[in-house]
Amino acid sequence: MYEIIEGFVEAIRLIVTLDPDVMAIAARSVIISLTATVLATLFAVPLGAAIYFGTFRGRKGLINLIQTLYALPTVVVGLLIFLLISRVGPFGSLRLLFTPTAMVIAQTVLILPIMTGLTISALSGVDPVLRDTLRSLGATRLQFLVNIMKEARFAILAAVAIGFGRAISEVGAAILVGGNIMASSFASSTRVLTTAISLETSMGNISESIALGIVLLIIALGVNLAITTVQHR
Amino acid sequence: MIEFEDVSKRFDDKAVLAGVTGRVEQGEIFAVIGPSGAGKSTLLRLVDLLDTPTGGAIRIDGTDIHADKGQSLSIRRMMGMVFQKPAVFNTTVAENIAVGLRFRAADERAIREKVEDALEIVGLAGYGERRARTLSGGEMQRVALARAMVIEPEVLLMDEPTANLDPVSVEKIEDLVIRINRDLGTTIVFSTHDMYQGQRLAHRIGVLMDGAFAQVGTPREVFTLPASRNVARFVGIENVVDGVVVAAEDGMSAVDIGSARIRTRSPFSRGERVSLCIRSEDIRIAPAIRGRRVFDGNILPGTVTSVVPRGPFSRVTVDCGFPLSSVLSWKAVEDLDLREGSQVTASFTAASVHVVRAGED
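Above: the input entities. Below: the structure tokens describing the complete assembly.
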């Protein structure tokens, strides 16, 4: 019990003094997950819109599949990407394994289904009367699409936030394709908040773990606050 | 201007419209009235090209609007529509009203001017920068009306525009409908299940029942000369009784309704089965009298079976062998000392009986 309290006190000290190691790991986490989120957004939002507005065979089945993939285990994604970029894999020559780039790729793949699915939900959530209103006001097909997307913008933003949340909090893929490396240069290191917590805890450095955990929560809280503020404006 | 020719619409196995035929003239306010589920919304949606008819044709100035998909956009842009449920885009009031103008690539200055004018007309001047979602239902519906109006449509369609609104908002919307029609000459087609709204606003009314127009005419025609038993019921004629013509001469006829003979004016001849429609306002209630008839009409003795308050009036039902409802002021009820069981005579003139051929229903 005493150790846990001591851990908390030490954790607060690490955060308040902006401990360089903790800050570097936090910054790396944000950069990698933010990059993955931006990439996933570029794919997921147009893809979600195409599926939502499209009329093709198997549309319902596709949406079901996407929703099933919400629960895609992070280690399975990690394993998949690992197999693709390992020395013996098809993309082995790119030498991506154990780099931040590999982590960005894995996280992008991981959050793509949930962001696509939530984009579809966001568009479905637009009041049908508004859809009729747009058509009755003489919208062309393009004007119609743009305005529905505009109307769903806050729900789509929430989808992006949820994607970021899942990316920054996952550990399975990050550790498999990143390797939790602490190299001499910031850019070639792959230690992020989640992998560091996992390592520090297994080594018995409770205070470091708690400090990193708190930082992770603060980041999640910050993202949520930002989104809520925008939505309520 | 708008012609319906045998228009039908099925959704899966359910026929919502079955043979709608009629005409809306340029510049008029045309009300589609009818009970819920009669197909009013469906009919308006077909006109606005939001749905396609299963059969028949809708023509605007002679052009079948559903014939050429390539023309859909330009046809739709002739029209504006306001829907039953007030709905606004999640942006400012001004931007809401501007949507249709932006679709037509109007220039910024023209948009600003038109939006300002429209806000003024619908009584929301100064609301331009407010967030539309914060408005009340009545205000949102006025925004919807302004939004449909600024595109200067030739035809304005309104699907039960006041169904969910408070009485004050209803009055405002009704005033606007009349002003838009009068000042801009816009042809307006609106639907309502409120027959009195139809009466207040419309130049002509189409009564939609069971997927077709049961009657099309001026409010006066529809309300005093309903074409069928069902229309009579819908427009609020409380007394509808069935009978057989037993004597007819010089436009006068006697109808046997089983328990009594009713004198009427009607063109029907002996032996024809008819329904008699008598407005409760036309029935007079007097104390029971003995002796001879005092006027050329119908005098029926009976017993009061109920006195029910209805707004500033009371509805008095008299059993004359068949139930007959009358409407009296509270004071009249008091003066006559009417209560359940009172012996009275109910009287009405032959001319106040509207006779229609009995339907199959």
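Note for the figure: Chain B has two domains: 2-230, 237-357.
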